[in-house]
Amino acid sequence: MNENILGTEKISKLFIKFSIPAIISMVIAGAQTIIDGIFLGNFVGQNALASVNIVQPFMQVIIGFSMIISVGSLSFIGRSLGEGKKEESQNIFQTAFIVLTVIAITILLVGRLFSQEIAVLLGANEVLLEGVSMYARTIAIFAPIMSLMFLFGFINRVVGKPELYLKGMILSVIVNISLDFILIKQLSLGIMGAAFATGIAYVASFFIVAHPMLNKNNIVNVFSGKFDKSVIIPMAYNGSSEGVISIATATTAYLFNMTFMRIAGEAGVAAFTTINYISQFGTLIMFGISDGIGPILSYNYGNRKNDRLDDTLKLASKVNLVVGVVLFLILFVFGEQLVSLFASGNETILNLAVSGSRVYAFAFLLNGFNIINSGYFTAIGNARASIIIAASRGMIFIIIGINILPMIIGRSGVWLTVPFAEFMTFIIGIYLVKKNNNLCMKLV
After folding, report:
1. Where do the domains of the chain lie?
2. Cα 317 to Cα 122: distance, rounded to the nearest angstrom
3. Phi first, then psi: what are they for 271, rounded to 5°?
4. pLDDT tens, position by position, 79-135
């Protein structure tokens, strides 16, 4: 790879080259469980759909640790390469590879040995317990491959192969749909079939993204560098906002599941699941943009090209605003048609989800800015600011909102919780960006 392309190529061209594959890859990665939900909701029933949603916090543990190490090492490596520190970059990757492998094997063992305890902890009742437990212990088998797939796919960007992650994700979604059709519809394997389909899909993607990391000629690969325990904390801290995002996703799913289970039973959980899937699809587009510009931001920050930083941030914010408005209109106007994909023929779930979608849609008008701001701070190594934004939109104001708003305006208050959290985070994000810009001006 010509390392200088990140510091010399026109920003709009870099944006297209890095963000488009990242957007598609992110959406496809997130679509794995959505695909499971479509098949389970239509061919098994609402309880299977609810079970897969309840187990999502466990999936987020796997994805969360993967993202902490993958994004943290990508940002660290990008800045190191921008500063011309090749050996340090190799050591960071080697350390990331070893640490993530150990974590993933630990998750595998916990998932296999304590699946029922995990299901109970996540709030599964007697009706959903076996389904949640089954999915957790099955998907746990694939935790190491899933984790390394994310790491290799992300690091491919700094060796000039951002398209491989996209190709891997495209293959994975084809495999997942095919296996869901065979295992769920044809063989009636239900939740276990869905978990195997998703896990094998990640395995297929792994074989696509692994090749560059096995090439000794690439600037970073599994053979170069050495384990350096001194970079573990900076790397993990730098990527910790991604972990907070996954923890927040798990926390949000848990709180909403428990709340809807209390006020509307399994049908309420299934209704939330449909809106959560639709929302997840839109949000992943925005996260794809944020992830795509990460190497551009980190390299130019390390190279002290602040004008390119500003241009990249402005372009990404404008694109996310357009995406947010489009998603708002789609969810507000076509909510019923979208919900029908997951719950066709079930009027109870349909009515609950459609009314909720029109309230939930307002979150898309602001969450793009929050996602870009969090990603920006991660890329430049300001993990503290990134964590504040991620925690604010995903945990702090979610917890506040879901405990207060339903008491004031009833069931609609549950749906309003996410727009409320995004609005409060937007205010905090503006303050942090202005504070960071003022600090940079003083340093210059």
Report:
1. 5-443
2. 35
3. -65, -45
4. 787 777 888 888 999 999 999 999 999 999 999 999 999 999 887 888 889 989 999
